Amino acid sequence: MNHSTLYVPKMRLRHVFFLLFVFAFFSTHAQQKYTLSGHIYDAETGETMIGAKLFFPELSKGGVSNSYGFYSISLPEGTYDLQITYTGYETLTQKIVLNNNLKRDFKIKPKATEMGEVVVSAQNERANTESTSMGTIELDVEMMKTLPAFLGEVDVLKTLQLLPGVSSANEGAQGFYVRGGGPDQNLVLLDEATVYNASHLFGFFSVFNADAIKSVNIIKGGMPAEFGGRLASVLEVKMNDGNNQRFGIDGGIGLLSSRLTLQGPIVKDKGSFIVSGRRTYLDLLLKGFIPRESNFYGTSYFFHDFTAKANYKITNKDRIYISGYFGRDEFSFNNNVDAFNVSMPWGNATATVRWNRIINEKLFMNLSGIFTDYNFQFKSGVNDFMFNLYSGIRDYGSKLDFTWYPNPRHEVKFGGQYTFHRFTPTSVTAQDADVVFNTGGISRIYGHEGAIYVQDEFDFTDVLRVNVGLRYSFYNHVGPFTRYITVPGQINNDSIVFKPNESIKFYHGLEPRANLRYLLPDKSSIKAGFNQVNQYVHLATISPTSLPTDIWFPSTDIAQPQRGWQASAGYFRNFAKNQYETSVELYYKGMRNLIEYKQGALPSDNVTTNPDNLLVFGRGRSYGSEFFIRKVSGKVTGWIGYTIARTERLFPQLQATWFPARYDRTHDLSIAFNYKISDKWTAGAVFVYATGNTMTLPVAWYLHDGRVVFEYGDRNTTRMPAYHRLDLSMTWYDDPYKITLNPETNENVKTKKRFRQNVNFSIFNVYNRQNPYFVYVSTEGNPNAGDLRIALKQVALFPVLPSITWNFNF
Amino acid sequence: MRNKAFIYWIVLSIGLLSCTKEITLDLPPFVEKVVVEGRIETGMPPYVILTKTQDIYGPSGPDALAGAFVHDAIVKVSDGTTTVTLTEFCANDIDPDLLPLVSEFLGIEPEQLAALNFCAYISLDPNFVGEVGKTYSLSVQVGDKTYTSQTEILAPPVVDSLYFKIEPNRVEHGYGWCVLNDNPNAYNAYFFETKRIHKNEQGEQADAFFRNSLSSAFDDTFFNGLTFKFAFSNIGSFRDDTPDEFRGFYKTNDTVVIKLSSLDYKVFKFYEMKLQQVANEGNPFANPAYVPTNILGGAIGCWSGFSPRYDTLICVP
User: Fold this and answer.
1) Label partner for A767 (CA 20 to 30 A): which of A359, A539, B172, B285?
2) Do B287 and A542 count as a contact with CB atoms less than 8 A apart?
3) Out of A489, A543, A706, whose CB is closest to B3?
4) pLDDT digits (tens, 9 = 90+) for B120-135
């Protein structure tokens, strides 16, 4: 068995972390204190409130509810005014007499506003300047619903791509890219379960149905120790818990899809459920568009997804949650004339079971059991020839997290997690009548991945807050496994076979994390952060555009874990009573053990060998600056984000010099705004500008055997034209009130309608910009005929596209 | 293969919504290179065509093609014991009656030979022809630069049988089928070509020379040691006046000669990637297909040893 230590920080760094922890706990005052703890709920739906701020003006102290709505604050004995604030909700003020440990749940009411009023940030008003988190942005789902939507489909990922430092590769690309990281370097969590492919329809739509989502939080930098396993970012998506006060139905009908959500109490105030489904009808539309004589006749595509969640409060201290997601894309082609057929389903399934327990008023526990499955299949047949391909991932995991509130200055988190991976990078069977092709057996890769962590966020002084943590992670590649020894141009007849559970390679490493916030006298703040992360999974992309066909596989004896570090610093300031949040952040990232396919590797090469035999390994670096101005409340809300950055790669086996990454973008500007015109109308606008993507194009051509052959130049040395686009939307809301006659008083009374509806009109690409989807070298004519013509051509995908979506709830 | 289905889909999407236009982008500076297209086959003399690469933004008309030939190079081929120096011939120097013969030998349309004043270096030694089992070295001297390469003529493949099968819903059109026995004890790479030798309506041989499709180069990765059967289409029908609905098919009573050659690994990789690149034109999901070379010294292209097996199929179901 081999052991590899990825990173062992110097002893000096260990001492610093140790001293910080020790100092932190000695700073606890000896005075008698009592603890106020409990949950914060939405008064109308019973949903737990994540990130609600509790504040005691007399003490200038407070706390924030965690991701399950739980809070805990220890204070000296006394009587205090408690203020609970949450953007978009009425401030709740309560007098608290604290003379023993007290458990109190609070319900806060949404402001009496219409559906169209928008809040951009879901968290408390000063989180921007007061928290230690950097590069962390939480978006409110309601805000997403009012922005212009591509073909009427509200999309979490597309909204995230409007934030500085987050980008899409191009119009149709799958995944998103954060601060120069690859799409595999984002940890996408749906109720704590990893989602490996977060897109439908090749990246045009995300797998998250906005109706079923409670919160979306992205961490681009300064990753706290509770998270790990990905170098670039964490995208935490939490599903709605379901309304535990009354039954309700939400839905929408759009051009491409329709969706329906049902939710309601299992037992009022104790438990609730929510189920939500969505399906496209692109397959039905296509049938109408494609004539029978067309080569594409017989083409069908649709996707659907389904989410479900239930929670139940077993005792005052225990609550369980069960949630799941199932999504599928289905592409098929059946050509009866040529007896050619293709079936290609792919999708994710996740399931999470969680147990929240309040062990005592200062200690909160969450235990999760997590299941994730992603698979891709390709089945094809022509006459007697049958071809079948399968690739997939299955994870079984568990996670145990504790949050400890020893005193108002500290919030300590510690815990661990474990995942058993079963990867099937590529499994192929092929048969032609009675001839069975040699495509190898099912080659799976098994691995154990785990981590333990501890972190403490504490106020070092009144102005200096520190979040310091340490994470230890490990990965063990185990059998059964067959390692193929391949020599180009020879029969692959050498292999090493490992037995089940036999340790093949063990990796581990320490990952220090630290974030500091220093509050300046004008309430602005300076923040700095450093983190190191090890990543034990990889995504091998053979084409320049990410596809569901890309191969996921874990670290092996050949593919070492990706390792990255990031240092960042920023200045944060709010203006106009926190209506405006601004920030400037600088970052530098280093990455090692990145992967690319060898020059000339073809997808079919994966079939009879291990995928990692086809890889080369390299380094990456990324640096940049992000500027962000956000208006969080008022009639006009939204933001302007601008990033100037550079992202480069070095793969000595591909090119001796550093070259730009394919998603390197020098300039990236996003503007997203909503304007509440009246109680009935809201307007939205999105403008994006981005430097064109890099690409590798031929630099010369020649004739060989009568055919034009191209010679390619250095990697990614050509840029596509810049991408820019303006989208607009208008949303109409019906009157939320109706006038009824009170028979007792004989007076007209204004009451809230049960049935609510709105209609969103969106125009995508208003000025019909022909943004490049891809560029290729075209050869027309015939060298023999003397009319050969070679030219670069750009294909633009989407012209101006209007859409309309009707949404309702009751 | 699975990418092909995506391509279907994306082509459909693009067809419905997209817009294509010609653009100009900044490309890395153009650096001219010598291109070697050389071949030696069993029983045939070696030949080498030398050209220069062309700028993407440069002209691509007949003048550019004619101007691409490299003249006055010193080209030598050796089998280890005998070395021959190849002689440069240009189409305009050849008796026009001989052009069809040269066309068949080089696999180039007669019109192209004449129009471009096509030039090639050919061995005039009748005793120096390709032999199975021999390794042939190439040396090309252009100015003060020398480029070298080696290729081997391997044992020819074993063709088990050929047959013709009419496709469903067709009356007299179908594909040819080739059954080959793959050698289980070695890595094998193949190159498949066809030539129709029946007379067309004009009374001429249907194909002047052997033609190959974009999937002509394949190896035995998936069928090592097996009897492998594959369909082949009528490549020549895409270049003549065959109606669209019958293109790709052979017709009952057509006569086709097949040429299945063994290639060494480096030659195979060149042809595989070259054809892959041609097939990928305009495919947004395709990686840049870097075509490898077995030429040393800074030139590109390929010096190829072909070991063919010929067989004839009369298209009778």
Assistant:
1) B285
2) yes
3) A543
4) 999 999 999 999 999 9
